[in-house]
Structure formats: C-alpha cells, structure tokens
Amino acid sequence: GENVEQHPSTLSVQEGDSAVIKCTYSDSASNYFPWYKQELGKGPQLIIDIRSNVGEKKDQRIAVTLNKTAKHFSLHITETQPEDSAVYFCAASKVRGNAGGTSYGKLTFGQGTILTVHP
Amino acid sequence: DAGVTQSPTHLIKTRGQHVTLRCSPISGHKSVSWYQQVLGQGPQFIFQYYEKEERGRGNFPDRFSARQFPNYSSELNVNALLLGDSALYLCASSPTSGGVAKNIQYFGAGTRLSVL
C-alpha cells in the first residue's frame, strides 16, 4: 500500500521567515495530494491541495509543488505569522472509478510537522 | 453552513466495553470516512462509506465496524475495547459532483476516546 514520509518532524522559524515541509510517497498511482493544518483540540483543516496533472499551486502565502518523477511534494509558507503555528500533515490519495461511476480514495497521511513561529 | 459534526466530543470507557461514535456530514455530502489518530501521529484510515455502502476498509480488526444511514450520517462501533484503542477518532465528509464522490475530504473536530 501507499506510504507517505514527512520531514522535518519539527520546524521552528522566526515571524516573517519562510517554512518548507517535504513529503515523499511510494505509490506512483497516487494522484491527489492535500495538506492539512491541525490546531490543538481541533480536527485537520484542509489548507491547500494539488492534483497530479499540476506541478504547482498557490493560495496567498501558501504554495505546494509536486514532482511526480521523484514522487515528492512540498508545502511552502511565506511571511510566516504566529497564527501559522500548528501541526501540518501531508497526505496522498489514489482516486479510482468503478462501473458505477463513483470515484473515491482513502487518504494516507504523513507523520506530521510541528511548526512553531516565534514572534 | 455547519461543518462535519461529531458526538460525543470526549468519551471514557474501560477495557472490554463497547463504544458508538456518531458523525453528521456537511449538508449535501454523501460520502463519509473514519480515521483514527493516535497522539503524535497522522490519522489512519478505518472506513469509507458512500451512498450507504462500504467502499473502503483500512487495516483494522473486525472489532471495528461502521454503517451509514439514509440521511448520510454515520456511526463507528468498536467492540471489546483495548487500551490501544485510545485515540482521536475523526470523521470526514466528501462532496459529490454529477453523482461522483470527490476525493476532497473535510474533517470534523473528532471524538477523543480514552480506554482505561
């Protein structure tokens, strides 16, 4: 089955600096890669996602890049703020269809990165 | 609009007991997935349901079961609880488009289960 490795496990930056979190996946058939932010006592919140037909996607201060050949994808956060402090998870999914036309896919998550942004 | 809602928020059980966790998906979402998140780790897939049918099952023992109701809400049941079942149980729902479940998943806040 799919295996997702995430690095680093902890990341500490100064406010205004950039933060980069990297993930690798094992199943070349995976084609959907979301990133989630989880704050203490809350469920994971989707912050950005990318599909395998796209190499890069941006949303304000957040960007994700995907290298299908190397099977890795990265989250980039620019101009970090203290409220960006949280645990970040990458995930991979393999969407498939069946005769009924339904597509679905379980998410395989990385181990998480604890990001701390110091004021 | 309300997001994914889960109940209860916290639960304490003893070994050998049974537990039922409940999930209401985002209005209009027909697909529900369950995940187990042990402290310090990423969520692990347990089940996925779409249109009341099981569509996927993770590597969990038969003590874990689930079902989806006609209103698309779902229950996760765990029998013969073990200490190792202590975790945050997350429910996620997915929208559909043209009768097809999309793979984007939105999570609830979870149910924190403690087994003593």
- Strand tally of chain B is 13
What proportion of the residues of chain A is helical, as a percent range? Answer: under 10%
Please trace the helix and strand order of chain B, writing H or E for each element.
Answer: EEEEEEEEEEEEE
Class per helix and strand makeup of chain B: mainly beta
- Strand percentage of chain B lies at over 45%
Low-confidence stretches of chain A: 98-103
Q: What is the helix fraction of residues of chain B, given as a range?
A: under 10%
Q: What is the count of DSSP helices of chain B, taking H or I runs of 4+ residues?
A: 0
Q: Report low-confidence residues of chain B grouped into runs of 5 or more.
A: none
User: Which chain pair shows the most residues in contact?
Assistant: A-B, 29 and 31 residues
Specify the overall morphology of chain B: globular
Residue-averaged pLDDT of chain B, rounded? 92
Biggest sheet layout of chain A: 6 strands, mixed
Question: What is the approximate shape of chain A?
Answer: globular
Q: Please identify the structural class of chain A as seen in this structure.
A: mainly beta
Could you tell me how far the N terminus lies from the C terminus of chain A, measured between alpha carbons in angstroms? 41 Å
N to C succession of SSEs of chain A: EEEEEEEEEEEEE
User: What's the Cα radius of gyration of chain B?
Assistant: 14 Å
Mean pLDDT over all positions of chain A: 91
Rg of chain A, nearest Å: 15 Å
Summary keywords:
heterodimer; A: 119 residues; mainly beta; 6-stranded mixed beta sheet; 5-stranded antiparallel beta sheet; 56% strand; B: 116 residues; 4-stranded antiparallel beta sheet; 13 strands; 53% strand; globular
